[in-house]
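Team,

Forwarding the record for the chain on the shared tracking sheet. I've put the sequence and predicted structure together so nobody has to dig through attachments.
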Amino acid sequence: MTRKEFITKSAVGISAISAIQSVMAQEHKHDAKMMKPKSKSKYAKAMMAAVHCKLAAEECLSQCLIELGKGDKTMAACAATTREVVSICDSFIMMASQNSKFISKIGDLCEDVCNACAKECKAHQEHFQECKDCMESCITCAKEMSKV
């Protein structure tokens, strides 16, 4: 398999994954206003913001990978920051659900990572709805993390 064939087949695969995620997202909306925390945890709102942010970042990352597959190298930094958001939001959710004594530190880090991602996604928001949604989710999540 040549490099060109590999890139083409990878882009097709990524496109298929993105299409499936889009269909699934349409069937199951993750609107932050609709997602009410059911937990009595003092971190419930921050946890819900992190869940929403993680999902938006996953969709943004998929779009970034599609564009990278097409050769658009300007999406590399966006892909990197969305990967970081997915990781830190997931970590925050796990630590908050355990009422960890380190929650304020991870909340501060989550706030910083979300702010960095929002800044990166802002550059692409005019071209990709996924970037705009991710940016907005990151801003909301960062605000919630500042309260932790």
